[in-house]
Write a structure and sequence with these properties.
This protein is α/β, with parallel strands linked by helices and 280 residues long. The protein has nine helices and ten strands. The chain has helices at 41-54, 78-91, 105-108, 125-132, 148-160, 187-195, 204-208, 211-223, 250-270, and strands at 18-20, 23-25, 30-34, 58-60, 95-98, 114-117, 138-141, 166-170, 200-202, 228-232.
Length: 280
């Protein structure tokens, strides 16, 4: 870890705070919500309004979708980015969206407030260097087969190019377990908090792939010390073009947010208590 010069925590109090659209990621309760993919303006705007009412602080949505099958819906591309920007204007929510290709970074920056590097691209070093030269925060998802060290080294690539605003995202890793889509590694939250000053959020949607688990794992993420979550929400989940099995409806999201807000109040009190293991 000695050559992780930029992402390594220098003291227990060392913490990077990234302000986007009035939300201070790493300090404020951060909830990124929206559809897996942008399918139409009506679907995206309706969902954006719903998650804003529920308490989301940012809007997510895929304009470019890397899919396992080449025949699956790949996203609307530029049209999808324009729709996201329209939804952002309607609601005031900043936009988080994935960029797949280094050649696309500069013009995706025109529409996105945060650039997402997905799990399949975590070790796409050309892309990491390009987003490192961008003037937008980067949300870096953990690779599905990656160790925490490998993940942090990828963050180091971005930081080394001059971009200091990196947000780490635990989204589950591939194990022998098949009941869930992936295995959510909540211990990674505490590991990152101990090793790095970068904010960390959790993606329970992709980690579990099961609607019934998203709320409990979201609550567990905050209880573990995560700075935020990112979840998939759709105005009509049964009609979603991808990942419909893990898409929350807007009423489900609002009910979940009520519990998250209550937990956040409790966590504020718990943090005032002395830790079981005091750090030197």
């Amino acid at each position: 870890m000695k050559d992780l010069k930029l992402c390594q925590k220098q003291s227990p109090e060392h913490k990077t705070i990234i302000e986007v659209g009035g939300t201070k990621i790493g300090q404020d309760l951060t909830v990124i919500a929206g559809p897996c993919s942008v399918e139409s303006e009506k679907q995206t705007v309706e969902t954006a309004i719903g998650v804003k009412e529920g308490g989301a602080t940012m809007l997510r949505g895929g304009a470019f979708k890397p899919r396992t099958s080449p025949y699956a819906f790949q996203g609307l591309g530029l049209e999808g980015l324009k729709i996201l920007r329209t939804a952002s204007r309607e609601t005031g929510l900043p936009v988080v969206t994935e960029v797949l290709d280094p050649r696309d970074v500069s013009w995706v920056c025109e529409y996105a407030d945060i650039l997402q590097v997905g799990t399949r691209n975590m070790q796409n070093f050309s892309l990491l260097k390009e987003v490192g030269r961008a003037n937008k925060p980067v949300l870096l998802k953990r690779g599905m087969h990656s160790t925490i060290n490998e993940w942090l080294y990828c963050a180091e690539y971005i930081l080394a190019e001059g971009n200091k605003d990196v947000i780490l995202c635990e989204r589950g890793i591939r194990t022998f377990e098949t009941y869930t889509r992936n295995t959510l590694d909540l211990s990674a939250v505490q590991a990152v908090l101990e090793l790095s000053h970068l904010p960390i959020i959790v993606d329970p949607s992709h980690a579990t792939g099961l609607l019934s688990m998203i709320e409990p794992m979201s609550l567990a993420a905050f209880a573990a010390g995560a700075d935020g979550i990112t979840v998939e929400v759709h105005c009509k989940p049964e009609e979603a073009m991808c990942d419909k099995a893990q898409a929350l409806s807007i009423p489900m999201f609002k009910r979940m947010m009520a519990r998250i807000n209550k937990l956040n109040e409790c966590m504020a009190e718990i943090k005032k208590l002395p830790a079981a293991v005091e750090q030197e």
